[in-house]
């Protein structure tokens, strides 16, 4: 609450604090009144009146501009405790911190705090639990140059976090089951952590499947022996048809259709390539892939309360690491396989790191390069009356595209692709902050401009790479160690205990609390959808819970049958 005695005493020596007509106080900063000159408290009531009816525990309020805190005091008195306050005017903040006394601990971002602190609050509060997220702007203290970057980041964080939450609701079951099924492939797999620890120390090129990849193929043929080449899974067929063999292919898609990226490719070609598969990837892929297998663990970048970055792992794979002593190796992802490949390239010591086929746009009004399995799937929708271009235009319309600056003029993109672009830019900033001399090169022939990456023409890039000479990589993958049987045995022993626990659970409304207090708290991620529906709406979906638990038990039994 506002300490009005301190406020009155401070007003005697600070000319920025001036009386209002109703006997209260406002701030005069830069010739502008932060609050109403007539009645700042009535102004505060009007500011928050739309928020008051909302459920207090389920509402997050983001306050842009603290002023003297009249609106914050009303929120606090009304029972709101999930509040983030952003004040970037130093003079205002120094007054506010002297006269306002909180009855709880809010999130506060001061003029001295980095913008990343906003991310840490979003992480700590777990914004997906809220039914309402409201932003209050104190217009009298608002200056665009101070708050525009925060408003943009709030918008992006909300879209990304809520999008991630929706993705987890949709795919968490498949991720969980795939991790379990992939346990049986660990014995023939190396760890990505061992591979990155070797520090390739050579140019690494990441080949993505954007529409302009077809223009980069001739360049990729020339530089093949001068770089360590990583293909994303959807780009592999394009490289095969062009007669180019990458060193690695990276996959993390949990869905069955991901197998289509590999089914049209001969085994003798794939035998020459290493497969980095995320533990959540569809388990049928490492089952049949004939080349070297390398298991990886996805981690998401978050920020702690001090604004320091950390990687948040999948809870099941983290548990497996703890009980086995294995460290698979954490690869940060921004939602796409290309973002994971980029972080891998950084960890592996790539220099320079080159991206190509990373259009992040509908270059030539297409979403993927021709010859990709995705392009073929789209192609099945067309006929003599509906040409393929019409099909792609329909896809673009459904995704609500917009124009963005591109390497050859403006180009169409959408929210998801733009989000990937933002991830690349944020990740590049982080990399360059610690390694300012690391060259990041965008050799994509068309698409959006990605800040922090240097654009370069194919001829110039070829000269740069060939001048460095060919690199030796023949034994780089073959000398990797397979995951040892003892560690896998400890995982199987832990899963056996997990199976006993799951088999003994009673399926009632107390099941989520029993799981939370057990040694297997990660199981609540598998039951995420059912838990959220119970907590938010009071509906206990016993049928769906039983169905998922039956599937889980059968997959656990399958692990042990396969291991026999």
Describe the structure.
By secondary structure, the protein is α/β, with parallel strands linked by helices. It has three domains: 4-142, Rossmann fold, CATH 3.40.50; 164-466, no CATH class; 485-563, no CATH class. Helix content is 43%, strand content 15%. It has 22 helices and 20 strands. The strands form four sheets. Strands 8, 9, 10, 11, 12, 13, 14, 15, 16, 19 and 20 form an eleven-stranded mixed β-sheet that branches. A four-stranded parallel β-sheet has the order 6-5-4-7, covered by helices on one side. Helix 10 (267-270) links the parallel strand 11 and strand 12 (274-278). The longest helix has 39 residues, at 144-182. The protein is globular. It starts with a helix and ends with a helix.
Give a concise summary.
By secondary structure, the protein is of the alpha/beta class. The protein has 22 helices and 20 strands. Strands 8, 9, 10, 11, 12, 13, 14, 15, 16, 19 and 20 form an 11-stranded mixed sheet that branches. Strands 6-5-4-7 form a 4-stranded parallel sheet, with helices on one face. Strands 1-2-3 form a 3-stranded antiparallel sheet.
